[in-house]
């Protein structure tokens, strides 16, 4: 999603000018430009098959470590040496280690008690009443659309407050073993997605794109935080996913992410190597939260969502991702205030 900024948003974000570029920044601008054209092509289905997803991810990680390695070291040092101090400054004592720990690549919080959840549900609900079921500007697939516009992150503070709240952040940090960043390119770090088959002008054909099993390749590991903004039942096209251990078996059996192998996996292919009963289904009441490593757990969703599915989707990655998206996409500018904690600034900057 490329944000379109209003004058008010631009002046807010430009209050503190960025530091002047270093010599390395100037060189990196050139290497980014040279890579960007190939990077876009490599992320297409033929590109991924030609090069192999594994190889592309390894190459991108190496490049990003050269490009952003200094910042990566800062984030790692903060995790290794200052985590308790940073967490306490951010949210007071008692948030780390987290109450919710991801196991086998995932965890589901059904408590409805995560701080800030009520406000998030309320503010996202307002937007849903205003925009859901209508045509949108940010259409990922005809049946899968982002209801969010850039100004929402300032108009509805709960959207960022929730994902940066101490308990949610603690779960992501504990799993990733570093201080992560909220993605600024692909996938968007924050999306308010509506899956709605009724918005698809064409009758449903075979499942395609994110309706088929795949694993995200933007980083590994990474953490998605999915929040159900309304009740999600089987008629809503809920997320289906395979735990990491089951996914590992499937990767081996299918040769997934190797050269010549497709990014998307059909049910027929998947269920020839694992038992369909091993799939977990994220069909839960409004306010349920799924933490999942979508780069380690096969997943699909938005199948025949005749009852609309409303889901807030957040993505945490490391500083040095496994894709080249930063070479050709503008960074999403999260609003950061002077008074924000050091931890929140690290995550959003
Ligand atoms: Fe995905």
TrEMBL record:
Gene3D superfamilies cross-referenced by the UniProt entry: q2cbj1_9rhob like domain (2.60.120.620)
Protein name, UniProt field: Phytanoyl-CoA dioxygenase PhyH
Stretches for region Disordered: 1-21
Organism: Roseimicrobium gellanilyticum
């Amino acid at each position: 999603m490329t944000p379109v900024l209003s004058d008010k948003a631009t002046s807010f974000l430009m209050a503190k000018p960025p530091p002047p570029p270093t010599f390395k920044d100037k060189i990196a601008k050139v290497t980014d430009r040279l890579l960007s054209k190939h990077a876009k092509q490599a992320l297409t289905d033929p590109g991924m098959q030609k090069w192999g997803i594994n190889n592309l991810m390894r190459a991108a990680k190496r490049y990003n470590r050269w490009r952003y390695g200094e910042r990566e070291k800062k984030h790692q040092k903060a995790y290794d040496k200052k985590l308790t101090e940073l967490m306490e400054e951010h949210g007071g004592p008692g948030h780390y280690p987290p109450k919710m720990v991801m196991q086998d690549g995932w965890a589901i919080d059904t408590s409805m008690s995560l701080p800030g959840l009520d406000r998030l549900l309320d503010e996202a609900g307002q937007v849903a009443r205003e925009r859901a079921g209508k045509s949108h500007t940010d259409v990922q697939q005809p049946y899968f659309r982002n209801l969010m516009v850039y100004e929402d992150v300032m108009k509805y503070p709960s959207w960022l407050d929730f994902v940066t709240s101490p308990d949610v952040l603690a779960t992501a940090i504990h799993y990733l073993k570093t201080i992560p960043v909220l993605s600024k390119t692909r996938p968007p770090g924050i999306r308010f997605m509506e899956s709605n088959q009724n918005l698809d002008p064409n009758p449903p054909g075979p499942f395609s794109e994110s309706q088929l099993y795949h694993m995200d390749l933007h980083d590994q590991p990474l953490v998605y935080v999915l929040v159900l903004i309304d009740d999600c039942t089987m008629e809503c096209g809920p997320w289906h996913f395979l735990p990491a251990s089951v996914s590992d078996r499937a990767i081996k059996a299918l040769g997934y992410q190797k050269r010549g192998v497709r990014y998307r996996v059909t049910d027929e292919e998947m269920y020839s190597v694992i038992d369909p009963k091993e799939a977990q289904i994220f069909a839960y009441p409004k306010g349920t939260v799924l933490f999942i490593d979508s780069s380690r757990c096969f997943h699909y969703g938005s199948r025949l969502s005749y009852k609309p599915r409303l889901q807030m989707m957040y993505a945490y990655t490391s500083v040095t991702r496994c894709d080249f998206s930063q070479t050709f996409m503008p960074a999403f500018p999260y609003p950061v205030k002077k008074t924000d904690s050091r931890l929140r600034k690290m995550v959003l900057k």
